[in-house]
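OP here, attaching both records as promised.
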Amino acid sequence: MRDIVHYISGKAEAGGGSRYGDVFDPNTGKVQARVRLGGAAEVAKAVEIAKAAQVGWGATNPQRRARVLFEFKRLIEANMDELARMLSAEHGKVIADSKGDIQRGLEVIEFACGIPHLIKGEYTVGAGPGIDVYSMRVPLGVVAGITPFNFPGMIPMWMFGVALACGNAFILKPSERDPSVPVRLAELLKEAGLPDGVLNVVQGDKEAVDAILDHPDIKAVSFVGSSDIAHYVYQRGVAAGKRVQAMGGAKNHGIVLPDADLDQTVADLVGAAYGSAGERCMALPVVVPVGEKTAETLRSKLVTAIAGLRVGVSTDTDAHYGPVVNAAHKSKVENYIDIGVKEGAELVVDGRGFKLQGHEDGFFVGPTLFDHVKPEMKTYQEEIFGPVLQIVRAETFEQALDLPSKHQYGNGVAIFTRNGEAAREFAAKVEVGMVGINVPIPVPLAYHTFGGWKRSAFGDTNQHGPEGVRFYTKIKTVTQRWPAGGTALADSSFVIPTMK
């Protein structure tokens, strides 16, 4: 049995704990490895080493830090196939999707390579008589990231790419469900020239999370996961005096107006709802057609498109999506389908009990479609995080606008229309953090920022982009004057200085 351990000070580290977690092959349902679950001792050791390593790394000029990231980018591209296979083997998403996972993380690394410009401060010459004022952005010190199972390549790179570029040392606590890719990323960073100890990976569960949140030398924590845990991380981290950004769950809506190109819209919806088996916080699990004619036509086209989906193992190049991550999650998704039936929604396509020939014990869930879902239903209110698409019908544009605006989550939303005025009004009024106009998964590019509203995000800064640089740095402002000398005590001023 293969053991996956911590990565501390540039090498594998078993740690002192005796707890393990199982890592499954989602395609077969079998345990393929064990991951060592660390706790307070492992976190403390990683922080001690990171704190010492950060001094030299933080003093390294931004251009040289960027060179390490440039080389890391080259190594990721050279090892893309290996990383994608490793990711798919533990997560279950198909290889092409795994490459997309890694590529979207790599785009943040590309952004972070611009750190010599991004980290520049401001300068004012002659702010007063002989006085200049300038500001500088300095690293926080040791920071940490707690990442989810659904993007084990992308989200760690979203976090540590910007953090390292800014001169911080980083503690990464990846998901215990698919922990191999984060360790491999750390190895490639060392190969790229990152000094030992600047990035450390501590495997673990809640015990490790709590240790990170409580450790006084960790100055900031970035988290992505479910909303309840995000809220917990935010509250506990802030109570410990940390800067915290905690991204939670989602229930993204796709609003379909009567003038939309329905063939294109259906293609977009099917990919956004069922890609990666729906295990994306930016998946699109709710479609809101406006008007009965739109709803009936859309439903008919969706049923046809769903019938053409191929569910397969993660290495099947013809598969549209693979299994969910483990048996517990498969059970959770199918339980939500049960609840939807009991609540009175119409189950148009049933994905329960799906079996793939030759892989009957794999964690597969077939594509599922509900119609006539009502806003008061539990399956609408909560995040299912599986290959389940729900149709919630609206009579008017205003009703459609209200649905995502009043939902507890506010991560992403999309509108499908040819009407520019309607799209502009929708984008201005909808109470959601990220909006797509004829774009089903509106994840911003790396040089913009990612973040939702309401229970989709806790904290006041977003992931990556300029917000990421602000999150991982603090400002120091210097006011300077170089007097000629010869002043006497009588020339002293005992009032606050002004520019009057």
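Record two, same layout:
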Amino acid sequence: MSLPPNLQEIVDDFASMTREEKLETLIGYAESFPPLPERYKEQREHMEAVPECMTPVFLVAEKQPDETILFYFDIPPQSPTVRGLASILHDGLNGSTLGEILSVPADFYLPMNLQEAVSQQRLNGFMGTLAHMKHAAVHAQSV
């Protein structure tokens, strides 16, 4: 499986961690989760909802002049696990090309053994977020 380099590094890091380290790392990702840029705060209706998540998750993708894609998320701060998981995708895929994003398999996270640290319901939301990121990236590429 070929992943964008940043995402591959994250997968490799998690694969070597204990359950406790995974939990601590997810909290660290949640704490470093970037805030939604001001230009999107009043435009939630233009953001893509992720209904697979129990927590309200909204995202948007922007095509950059160099043809890479940047993602922005709106996730409540009181949802650290969801923010941590979204941050993995954000950090792993931001700055990737559309082709790189679309080539990420839905089960890319299996080597990370995240089921040791989070519920299947959270993993379903994680997979749903990836699917919606792909859709948003395609939309951004066509705008």
